[in-house]
Amino acid sequence: MVMKRALAILTILLIGYWIALALSHVPFGADKMLVGQYYLNHVKAQTGAVNAVTAVVVNYRGFDTLGEVTVLFIASTGVAALLWRKKRKRTAKTEGSVVLTTGSRLLFPFIVLFGGYIFIHGHLTPGGGFPGGATIATAFLMLYLAFSVYEIPHKGFEITEGLAGMGYVTVGLIGLAIGSYFLFDWIWQSWGWGHSNIGRLFSAGFIPVIYTIIGIKVGTELSGIVDSMVKEGGE
Amino acid sequence: MSIGVYYFGAVSLILIGLYAVLVKKNLLKILVGLSIMETGVNLLLISIGYIAGRSAPILSEGVGPNNAVDPIPQALVLTAIVIGVATTALALTVAINLYETYKTLNIEELRRLRG
Amino acid sequence: MTSCVQCIEYLMVFIMIAAAVFAVEWRDLLAAVVGMAAVSLVASILFFFLQAPDVAMTEAAIGAAMSAAVFIFAIKRTQRYETEEEEKPGWWVRW
Amino acid sequence: MNLQFASLLIALPLISAFFVPVIKTISRKAVMPFLVIITAVQTGIAAWVFEEVYTGGKPIIIMAGGFKPPVGINLYIGHFAALFVLIIAVAGFFMAVFSMKSIGVEPKDKYAMLFLLLMLGATGMISTGDIFNLFVFMEITAISAYALTAYNKTGEASEGAMKYIVLGGIGSSFFLVGIALIYGSLGTLNMAQIAQLAGNINPTVAQAALALLVFGLAVEAELFPLNAWAPDAYQAAPHPVTAMFSAFVVKAGLYAMVRIIYLLRDTQAFTGILRLVLILGTITVVIGELSALRQTNVKRMFAYSSIAQVGFMAVGFSLGTQAGASAGVFHMVNHAIVKALMFLAVGYVALELGGTSIEDFKGLGKKMPLTAFAITVGAISIIGIPMFNVFWSKIQLILAALKVGKTGVIALILGASLVEAVYYIRLIHTMWFESANGEKVKENFTLGVIMLLLVALIIVIGVFPNAAWNIAQKAAADLYNVSQYIKNVPLLPGVSP
Amino acid sequence: MINELMIIIFAPLLAGVLAWIFDVKGIREGVAIIGAAVPLAYLIQAYQTLASQPSIQYSIVLSGFKFEFILYHLSWVFAMIAGVVGFAAVLGMVSTAKDSYEWLFALMSLTGVYGVFLADDLISFFIFWEIMTFASFMMVLKYNRKASLKYFLLSVLGAYAMLIAIGIIYAKVGAFDFTSVQRVFYQDAMRSVMGSDTLFSRNELLLIFGLFLTAFGVKAGTFPLHVWAPDAYSETNQSYTAMFSGVLSKAGVYGMLVIYILLGTRLMYEFGNIGAAPKFGYVIAFLGGITIIVGGLLAALQEDIRKLFAYSSISQIGYILVGIGVGTALSIEAAIYHAISHALFKGLFFLIVATIIHRTGKTQFKDMGGLAEKMPVTFAMAFVAILSLAGIPPLVGFASKWLIFEAVIHQNMPILGGMLFFGSAIGFVYLIRFTYAVWFGQRPTELDDTKDAPLPLAIAMGILALLNVVFGIAPGIVAGELNKIFGKEIIQGTIWELNLGFGRYNGLFITIWLVVGILIAAVIYFLGAKVRRVPVTDTYQAGNPVTMDYNLTIRRNFFLPLKETLAFWLRMSFDRLYQDIGSWVEDLAETLRHYIYNGNVQAYAWYLAAILIILALWGV
User: Fold this and answer.
1) Which residues on A lie below 8 Å from B94 (Cβ)?
2) Which residues contact E133 (CB under 8 A, 6 or more apart)?
3) In degrees to the nearest 10, what's the CA dihedral of D477, D481, D482, D487?
4) Out of A3, A130, A229, closest to residue C62 by CB
5) Closest to D7 (Cα-Cα) out of A170, A74, A176
6) How many domains does chain B have?
7) A181 — contact with chain D (CB < 8 Å)?
8) Per residue in E278-331, pLDDT tens?
9) Which of A162, C75, D242, E276 is a Cys-bridge partner for D18, taking CB atoms 3.0 to 4.6 Å apart?
10) Residue E69: its H or E element
11) pLDDT tens digits, one per residue of B64-109
12) Where are the domains of chain C?
C-alpha cells in the first residue's frame, strides 16, 4: 500500500512537472487574445449584449451551448433511465425542522424568481441560463429536503424539458430559415430589434429568449436528477 | 521555471484528483477525485484567460474592449462545469446501481467482467 | 495593496489544496464531499479574483451546490464510510 | 438548395430527442417507430449531404450563427465527414430497427433519446471544425455511451459503464488541459487556424498539448492500454449499442485523434507522436488479437477483434503518408460494415438463444442458418480472404507500409490475420459442424434483410472495390491534406496575429 | 465477348454456384460435370490455337488492378492436369458427395487452380491462390476442425509469405505482371554480372526467394511444412482428395517453376552453380529429397488407408521437387513429367480409396481384406495405380521416375540419387501393405456383400487408369508437349521412345516384352501348376512368435519393428513442434489477457497514468 502510494505520488509529481513545464511557456496574466479581442471589439454591435461572456456563449459559440444543454439532458435522461424502477417513492421518514419547512415555503417563490431574474438578465449582468436554472433547481431541492412527501410533477417536468430543448433548436432553425444560418440571431440581425436599447433588458437579440429556455431547461433537468436520485425503488 | 499561484493551484487540483483515482479503493472516492480534477481544469482554463489588471468582460461603463479579460475561456468553463456535473450525476447513478447489485463500492470486488 | 491581494490569493489556493487533500483522504465520505464542495467554493472565489463572475456563479451554483447535493444523495443510498483497506502484500501481483 | 441546411444533421436528432417525452405522453408504443423514422430521415439527409459533397467536390462549411470562423464555430463537412455521417446514419437506422426487437428493458423512451444523442454526438465529433466543440461533442458521445452501456441495469452493465466513466473522465480532463495549452498559446480554437499557426507554438507547449490531446482521444479511440474499458463496455452494453460503438463511436474518436495530429504537423512533436501512435497501434493489434484467441464469450471475442482492427487503422494513419491514411479510412469503412453486421448477428443470436457464450453458437447453422451465414461472411471478410471487402483494405495497408519501408507492419498485419483465422475458424466450425439440440428458430424477416444487405455490401465491395476505394481515397485526402483544409475554411481575414 | 480463358477459369465456379443454388439431386451433379467438362473442352480446343501462336492472352482491369491471364505451353500442360484430374474427381464426387456445399467448394477450388495456372501477374496469381486455398479449406472444415485449422494456418502463412514477397517486388518494380518482373530481374542479373548496382540487393533477393519457397512449399507439402497435408488429405471427401492431392499440390510445384521463371537468372548469377545445377536449386532439391524419405517412411507406418496415401503423395511430390531443384532443362522437364504422372496415379489412388470407403465405410487396414474378389474393377484400377506408383514399366510412373533418375545421375549427384532410390524402395514397402491388406488375404465377414465401384467412379477411375497406361506406353506424347515448353528437343525420340542421348527408354518395346512374358506365365500357370484353391483365412507372421500384444499381421502394425527402429527419429515431429508452439502461444495469450484485462478499474487507471508518464518523460 505504501509502495502504491509512493508510486502514485511519484507519478503525479512527474506528470505535474511536465504540465508545469509546458505552462511556464504560457505566461500567467499576459494578453494572449486573438479571437477574444475580436469578440470584445464587436460584441455590442454584433449581438447587442453587454456581457461578452453571454454573447460568446449564446451567439458566437452557440453550438457549444447547444451541446452543453444536450449533455445535461443526457445526464437527466440517463439518470432517469438507470434509476428507473417499477414503483418508486420517497423513503424519507422525517420532515425537516419547522424552521426549514416554513423557511422553504416562504423562500421558494423568491428563489425561483431570483433564478428567473438571473437568466433573463444574462446579457447584462453575470449569470445566465445555467446558474439561473441551478438556482431554480436549488429551490426544488430545498422543498425535497424540507418535506418528506414532496415530489415534483416529473411528467410535466419531463415534457417541459423536452419542449424547452425543442424550443432552443426551433429558435436555431428559424435562424436557418430567416438568416440561412443555423442558430442565426434573427431577432437582432434580421429584424434589428432593440438596437437602441443596448445595456437594457430588451436588447441583445435572442439571447434573453435562449437564456430563458436554457434556464427553464436546466432548472427542470437538475430537479429531475434530484428527483430520480431521491426516490428509491419499491420492493 | 516559474508558474503563477493560480496555475500551481489548478495543476495541484488535477494531480490530487488523479492521485485519488490511482490510490483510493472506494468508488465514490474515485468519483470525488474525478470531480476535483475537473475543478482543477476549469481553474486552469480561467487562469489562462486572465489578463493582469483588466476587469470582467462586461462592457458597461468604464470597461472598454481593451480593458477586459478574455471572454472565451469563461464561456468554455461554463460549458465544462455543466458537463462535469452531468458526468458526475451519471457516474453516481451507476454507482448506486452497482451498490444495489453487489452491496459494495470497493473496486477490487467489482470485477465480474474481466479477461 | 497588491501584496495583500496576493496574500489572499496564496491563502485561498492553499485552503483549496488543503481541502482537496482532505476530500481525498477523509474516510467519511460525507466529509469528503463537503471537502469537495469546499474546493469548488474556494475555486469560485478564485474565479472572482480572475475576473470571471459568470463562471464563479455557475461554479458555486452547479459545481458546488448541485454536485454536492447529488453526491450526498448517492451516499445516502450507498454507504457512508470507506471500508478499511487491509494491507495486502504485492498489490500489483494481485491484479 | 442552401447548403447550410446540412446543419439539419445536427438539428434533427437533437430536436427529435427532445420531442420524445412529448411522444411518450401521447403513446408509449410510438417511441420506437419514431426512432426508426427519425433515423431514416437522418439517413436521407446524410445521403443528400454525401451526394452534394462528392459531386460538388467541395466541403460544406456550416457556420453557426452566421459568424465566419474563427469567430463562430463552424462545421466542416468535407469528404471524410460526409462519408462518415452517412455511415453513422445508416448504421443508426439499422440499429434502430434492431432495437425495436431487441430492447426489452424499460424505459424505452429514454433509450430512444440516448440512442439519438449518441448518433448526434458522433456526427458532431466527425464534422466539427472547432477543437472545443469537439470536446463538447465527445462528451455528448461519451456520456450517452455511458448511459447506454449501463442501460440494462444489470451488475455487469453498471460495472462496464463505471470503468468507461472513470477512464473517460480522466481522458477528457487531460484533453481539456491540452485545449487550454493550445488556446493559451494561440488564442484561437478553430482547427483551421490552429493548423495555420501551429508553427508558432513553443515546442515544449506543443509537445505537451499534442500529447495530452492525443491521450484524451486515445481513450475514446481504444488504443492500448487506454482501451481497457472497451471489452467490458462492449460486452455489457445492449446489442445494438455495441454495434454502434464498434461501427462509429470508436471511429469518431480515432478520426478526431488523427485529425488533430495531422493539424499540428507543423509542430516538432509531430513525428514523435506519430511514432507513438504507431507503437500503441501495434501493441493494440497484438494484445487485441491474442486476447480474442481463447475467448469463450463470442461478443467479447468480437470486441477484442474490433479493438485489434482499430489498431490497424491507427497503424495506417500513423504511417504519415496519404496512402497510409487512405488505407486507414478504407479499413474504417470496411470494418464499420463488417462489425455492424457481426454485432447485429451476435445480438440476434443472444436474443433468440439467450446468451453469447460459445455454447450458444453450437449448431447455429442448423438453428439460425441466415444469421450463421452472416457471421461467417463477416468472419471470413475480417480474416482477409480475397473477394471480401476487408481484404482490400488490408492489402492497401500493406502497400502503404511497403512504400515507407516499414516491413514490420506487414508482418504485424499478416500475423494478426493468422491469429484471426484461428479464432474465427473455430467459431465457424462450431456454428456449422457441431451439433446441438434445439429447435430451428424462425428468423425475423426485417433483420434478415438487413443482414443480407450488409453481406451483399461486403461482397460487392470485395468484388468491385474501385468505387469504395476512390471514396476512401478522397476522404483520406480531406483528412491528410491539411493545407487544403485550411484553404477550404473561409477564415475571417481580420482575425489573425 | 467473353474470353475463353475467362470461361476456363470461371466455368467451374459458376457451375458450383448453380449447383449450390439448385440443390436438387441429379441437377447439381449434371451442372457440376458440365462445369468441369467445359474448361477441359476449351483447353483441348486451345491446343489447336497454341500450335499456331505462342500464347493466348487476356487482361481485364478491375478495381484499379490489371489482371492478366496467359495460356502458353507450360500453363497449358498444368491446366490440362487440372482439367483431366479435376474432371475425374468431379465424376467421382457424383458418387461420394453428399450435399451441395461440397459441390460449391470443390468446383471453386478448381476455379482457383485454373486461375493460378493461367495467371500472368502476381496479383491474380495471389487472388486465385487464395481462392483455391479457401475453397479447399472449406472442404476440409466440413469434416474436421483440427485438420482444417492446421491446413488453414499453414496455408495462410504461405499466402502471407507470398504476399510479402509480392509486396517487396511491387515496391521496387512498380508492376505486378510477370513480364515486367521477369525483365527487371533479368536486367538485375546483367547488372550484377557487370558489377554495377542492382535494384534488389542480395539480401532482398534471398528474402524474396525464401518467402516464395515458404509459400509454395506449404502448398506442395514440402518438408518441414508438410504437416497439414496428411490430415487435410485424409479428412475430406476422398474423391475430392484426388483433386486436392493430384492438382492443388501442383499449384505449389507450378509456383516453384514461377520462381525459376521470375527470379531464375538473377538467382543463378548471384549464387552461382555447382556443375550445371544452380546452387539455389539445391535447397529445393534437398528439401525434396528429405520430403521423399520422410513421406515414404511415415506412409509405411500408417494404419489408415487415407493417411497412407496422403504421406505417399507427399513423398511423390518430393520427386518433383528434386527434379525442379536440379535445375537443368532435362530435370525440369522430368519434374513436369512426374507432375503429370503423379496427378494421374495419385488421382487414381484417391478415387480407389474413395470407392473403398464409399462401399465399405472402413478406413483402417485392420478392417479390410480380400476385396479383390468383391471389387474386381476397382482392383484392376488399383493394379494399374500400384504399378505406376511403384515405377514399373510400362506405366507412366516409370517413365517419369526414370527421367528424374537420369537427370539427377547425369548431374553427378549421388546423394540425391540415393534418396530417390530409397524413396522407390520405401514405395514398395507401403504398396505391399496396401496391395495385400486390402485386396487379398482374409476378408472380414461384414465385407462379404461389398459391391463394386459405382458407375461414375468407375468411369473416373477408368479415365485416369487409361491415361496411366497410354502415357506409359507412349511416353513420347508427353515428352513432345514438354519439349514445346522449352522450344527445343530436350528429350528426343519417337512417340514410343525417350532418348536422352545417354540413355533411352522404349515404352512399346517393354510393353511387348511384358505382354509376351505374361502370356508365357499364363501358359505355364494354366498348363503346368496344380492350382489348389485355399480359403483365405491363414495368417502370415513372418516368422515371429504370435502373442496377443505383439500380433503383427499385414493388416495390423505390420511395420511395427520398423517403427521401433525409427522411434528416436519419429519423436522429432514437426507436427508436434508446431502444435507445441501453438498451444504455448495460446497459453501465453490467456495469461496475458487475464493479467492485463484484470477487471480492476484502478489497474486500468494506472495504465492511463503509465501512458501519461511516458508522454511526460518524452516531453521533459
Assistant:
1) 82
2) E112, E152, E155, E156, E159, E219
3) -90
4) A130
5) A176
6) 1
7) yes
8) 778 888 888 888 888 888 888 888 888 888 888 888 888 888 888 888 877 788
9) A162
10) strand E65-71
11) 778 888 888 888 898 898 899 899 999 999 888 888 888 888 887 7
12) 2-77
